Structures are given as C-alpha cells and as structure tokens.
Amino acid sequence: MTALLATSGLTAFYGDFQALFSVDLTVEAGEAVAIIGANGAGKSTLLRTICGLLSAAPERIRYRGEAIGSLSPADIVTRGIALVPEGRKLFASLSVEENLLMGQQCGRKGPWHLERVYALFPMLRERRHQPATSLSGGQQQMAAIGRALMTNPDLLLCDEISLGLAPIVIRDVYAALPGIRAEGTTLVVVEQDIARALGVADRVYCLQEGRVTLEGRPATLTREQIKLAYFGV
Amino acid sequence: MDWVNAIVQGALVGGLYALFAAGLSLMFGVMRLVNIAHGDLIVLAAYLGLVVVNATGLGPFLSLIIVVPVMFVLGYILQRGLLNFTLGGDILPPLLVTFGLSIIIQNALLEGFSADDQKLQAGNFETASLHITDQLAIGWFPFAIFLTALAVIGLLEFMLYRTALGRAFRATSDDSDTARLYGVRNRHVYSMATALALAVISIAAIFLAVRVNFDPASGPARLLYAFEAVIIGGLGSLWGTLAGGVVLGVAQAIGAQLNPGWEQLAGHVAFLLVLIVRPRGLFPRLVDG
Amino acid sequence: MKTTAVPLPTFRVERSTRTSWLGLVLAIAGVALLISLPWWGGEDDLRLVVEICYTLALAQLWNLLAGFAGLVSVGQQAFVGLGGYALFALTIIAKVPPIPAVALAGIVAAVLAVPTALIVFRLRGAYFAIGTWVMAELFSEIMGQLPDLGAGTGMSLPVAISRAVGATVYERETVLYYMGLVLGIGTVVLVFAWLRSRQGLALTAIRDSEIAAGSIGVNSARTKFAVYLLAALITGMVGALIYLENLRISPDAAFDVIDWTADIIFIVVIGGIGSIEGPFVGALVFFALRYFLADYGAWYMILLGAVAVIIMLLAPRGLWGLLSDRYDIHFFPVRRRVRLE
Fold it and tell me: What is the ipTM of this complex?
C-alpha cells in the first residue's frame, strides 16, 4: 500500500540558503505524526514545501502516489492537504466567519462546515462577526485550525499551534485534535514543545539543521536519543 | 441661484469621477497595482462605444451591452498576459509597464481614429432637466450619472463584502500567500479584479463620451481625476471614493463659476488642500502597504 | 578538539576598473571632438547635439531620482516647464540677461520644488508618481492663467532677448551649443560625483534597504529631499535652455508629459535603470530609432513604448545591464568592489 504522503530526498532553498537536505518522511493514512526540532531546524520549511509555497521537484513529494512537488498551493489544497500556518496568519480585514469561509474556496466537500467548526470551538460562534484581529491568541489559533478544517482535508498540517500561547490555552487547542482525528483526518504536527508533541503522536520525526536525525514511535525512544537528535550534542 | 445650480451639477458630475476612480481603487486594493494606463483604458472604452454605436446603430447607453463584456475580457487578458508579470516587491515594473501601455494605447488610438474630437450623442437626454424651483433645475443626465455611480459602487461593495469572490479579493489583499493556501488562485483573482475594473471603466467611458468631446490624448486627465478622487476620499474605501469624486466635482464647478479658466485648477487645488490638511484622505480605511 | 584558525583573506576596496580608465580616455577624446564641432559642423549638427545633451541630462536626472533614490516621478515636466517660464519671466519682466537667466531659472525651479516636495512626499510609491504628475498639471494650469506670460496660448521671446545671446545666428547657435554641452556633460559629471560621495553611498544604502540604511544613521528623507531638489535645479536649467532655443513657449508644450518625461523614462528603462551608462545607451537607441522611424509618427511611439515594456519585463536592468553583466565593463565606477588579494 502506498503511503498517504511521502517525501524522498526533499531539498528546499531560500535563495542561496539551503534549508532542507534530502528529507525522507512518510505519513500513513490515519496516523498522527509529530515533527520536532529546534528553532531553524527546517520544520516550517518542510510544511511550506509540502503545501506548495516553496517549489520542489515533482517526484520529491508524493501524495497518494501522485507526484505533487511542483503543484501550486491551490492545487494541493484541492487534493486534500491543508496547512494551519505558523503564526496563524488570519486575514486581518475579514471577520472570524469570513476567515472560516475562506476554507471553502477550494471547493472540497466533506464533514466540515461552519456549524461543525462552531461545535468544535464554541467561542468562535459568539465572535463570528468580529474582526479576526479582535480575538485572543488562543481563539485566533482555533479560528486558524477551523479555517483549515473548512477545506475538508484528508491531511492536516499544524505548524506550531502552541506558539505564544499560555499552557492552559495550549491544552484547549490540543483538546480539539482527537475530534479531528475521529473524522479520519491524518495529522502532522510541528512542535518545539517535545512533551506536547510526543503526547499526541503515533510517530515522531526529529529535524536538525534541515536533516532528519531521528524517527520512531514515542514509546520506543529514550530521552537521550531525542536530546541528541534535537540538539546534536 | 447660479451658484446653487453649479454646485449641484458639480456634485452630480462628481459621480463620474467616482466611476473613473472605482476601478483604480479596486485594482490598488487587491494587488497594490497603480495602473497609469487607467485613463487611457477609459478612452479606449469610449472609442469602443463609438465603434459599436456606428456599427450597430444602438444608442450610446445600449452599446454597453457589448462594450462592458468586451472590456471585461480585455481586462482579464491584460492582467493575465501582462500585468501579473509585473507584480512583486518592486514598484518600478508595474509603474513603468503601465506607463508604457498608456503611451501605446494613446498612439494606437491616434493611428486608428486620428486626433479629431469625437462625441457620442444621446439626444434630448443630454440637456433635459428636472425643474425643482424656478431657479433650480437638475439635469437628467448628471442625475443619471450620479445614480449610476451610487448603483455601481453599491454593487462593488456588495461584491466585496458579501460574495466569495469579494472575500478572496480582501484575503489576497491582506496576505496573498496565505490566501493561496486555501485555494485562492492569485493570478485568476488579480485578473478578475482588473476585468471588473475595466467593466466599471466602460460605464464611466460612455458617460464621459456623451458628456464631453474626447480624443486619443484625453486619458491622462481622467487618470488624474480618478487619482484625485481616490486620495481625497481615502485609500481603500469605495464610498470615500464617491465622496472624493463629489468634492472634486464641486471644486471644479466652483472654480468654473469664478472664472471659466479655473475649472481644472480648482480641482487640483482641492486635491492639494486635502492632501495637506488630511494626508490620508477624508475617509481612509486601508493603510498604503 | 583542535581548531585551526582560518586566516582572514586580505582584500582591498576599489572602485576603478580597467574599463573605467578606458572610459576616461574615450570620454576626453569625445569631449574634445564635441568642443571643436562649431568649427566644422553645420547648424543642424549643433542643434542635434544640444538636443542629445539635454535629453541625456534629463535622463541622468530621472535615473538619479528613480534608479537610485527610489523616487519614481512622472512629473519632471513640471521643472522643465517652470524653468522655461522662469526664463521668459526673468528676461522679459525682470530684464535679466538671458545667459545668467538660464542659471537663475534653475534656482527658481528648485525653490518651487521645495513646496512641491513637501506635498508629494506625503504620497508613497506609485501614488507619489501620480502626485508629481498632478503637480505638473497644476503648474501648467497656473502658467495658463498668467496674461503677462501669454496665458493659455503662450508667447514668443522678444527678438531683442535672443539677440542678447549672440548678434548673428551663428554666434547664437554656438553660444547655445556650448551651454547645452556644459549642461549635458556637467550633469553626467555631477551625477557621477554625487553617487561617489557620501550622499551617493547613502542613496545606494537606501535603495538596497531603507530600513537597514536608517538603522545605520542614513537619513533617507533628507537624502531623498536633496536629490529631488538637485534634479529640479538642473531640470529647470535644461528647461530654460530648451526654451531659449525654441524662442516660443506655451503651457501645453512646456509641461508636456510625453516629451519631458515619457521619452526620458523610456530612454532610461531601455538603456538600463540604476547605472550612469544606461541613459547613454538609451539615448543612443532613442535617437537612432527616431532617425529611422520619424516618418511613422504614432507607430514610432508605439514601438518605443513596446520596447520599454518588454525590456522592463525581461531585462529589468536594461541593455546596459545585459552588456555589463556579460563583459563586466563599467565606464563610470560608482560601485565599490571588494577584491581579494
């Protein structure tokens, strides 16, 4: 059986700067995979490349067996990969509900619609007509997840959804993930917070300076292994 | 009462300036593109109207049935085939390419239609007026201009704030990369913005062509009116742009009333005063990024 | 672990290149040739060289504004017109002799550039561009309202004033020729010197990153203001010279956006924006195209516009950019290069 998503020898560049070196990553349907790594390890770059914001050679990224490396972001989201971007990136001049509705631009059908998202994050319903910028950090993160869910993805990529949030708020945000997985959505979570990542994931990859330094199931990995892979010392 | 008449007339004609400006404002809002050829595209649409009227015998306003769709398609092609390639961080390419386009359109019209003045005829409608009192009369034609401006700007606002396309416009304006993540095809969205801008231009062009003589070199002045209306009204607000158009129209009317040679001058002076006193315009919404 | 220190490579910072010395030699020879032209050239040759000189001067100035200071003006015709009108006002009304009046006209243009800058500098980017155009229209409208200067239809320079330039036609043409030569060459030298000065370094820093330049103490607003005034000063003098030669001025012609800005922009874009060599190459192309295509009227402008659009899209640094990249030639070394030894 082919994996849902597979990268092989994936590289990425920002101008002359190489951010990823031959990254091999496999995600099976229904899994939750965590990608951990220090700041600048290339985690966000990996997600941005998968989503088409950075270009790659076509066959370096395969989704359901299809080479998607050179497709545009719009084509990729239409195939069922959605990103919750780092820093949330809500549209500042759109209301909360309009931000959610942006997820429908790609036209995919599925279980997620406005009411389902409001059921998952009830506080968004109360503020649906407010500008997205008026929300608190945690609410903005929920709106960003909701917006990605509105595309009805088969594969949801979450980039540092705990960033800048208080621990109690992080718990609320993470509490939504099981419900999302229950719909059959495959999850890739990028985190700097190792404990949080290991708690949610079936499998974990560690990146360091643009390379995969560790891969395995959380239960089988030792603290020493992770520390070495994370910091390189 | 001459004064009241002149000012009312000027305010109504301001609707025409708002129509000129709406397309400029839309294109700037969605993709930060300031189209220097805007005025020349207005004049191009006016010539297209002339051709349609001469070829089909339709009245000037009915010619819009053909002119609007043609300009819409032209706008889409222009953006997709040329202007999209100028977008990016640098302001020079869009500015200089549209400047070049402006010169090309002017000279192509000169080659095709000569430098002679042209005008579209709308018969009695041009001069008929509604008598409010013995001294105050509102021309039907300026009134129609103003009502059209209200309707067009109302429709554009509806499109921007109540439709999926409008959401895509605003989202792209905020953050085009993130918009792409959710299925917005930027190049298509930009092309739709230009297509709509040129459709609006067409309506303005026919009113212009009925109201005054035009020739291939009439474009730049229309660009400047449109620009002044946008800046007076404040960036990013279409209703502000309408107000800007009205301010400009009234200023020109007052200038013309003082001295027939001062019409243009008064408009420019009004623009400068607003720029000095309220640099962000009367009703700003968007910050110039 | 043992580390070996990597020795820092020795280097020196240099500006002159081998081609720049060649350029200097060529330039001196060319200037000598031009100085001698009145002895062996005809009246048409003199007039053509004057036109090339002021076109080149306008192109260098626009390039300084747009290519180096990021001030994309489409309103430089304001200062050509103001310079021309100032010449007429100074010579006719204030009875200033015509030759000093040309210099004074530049000062008048620069003085009027101060309030203009205060207004248009409130606008950013592309809106700045159109704002400068509005200012030019405003000045044009104002000149059209002054009966002493011919109002809307314009006026001619009295014969007595053109006689004051030179008693015979030949003498007049020769004087105007040297004035044109001084303005043309002087502008190139001035722009070159400016770009090599601290001011020029500041400009380059601003062009590369305005924020970074600000953080190391470059006052970008003041530098841009200074460039704008300098461009207005020389553009005003050029305008005065043009109308001292034309002998007739009108608002429409003096503030014409095509002649004084569109053509100039095309020259700079085609030749190569952001280099001193670019306007030379562009002017060469411009005058060659005009020589061969002058009879085609509108088609000539369509072609010129199309070439400029295509170059802007495909080779944003113009013909000179293509040439200097391929052969690494720099006649006007304004860049500092780090050379490893």
Answer: 0.91
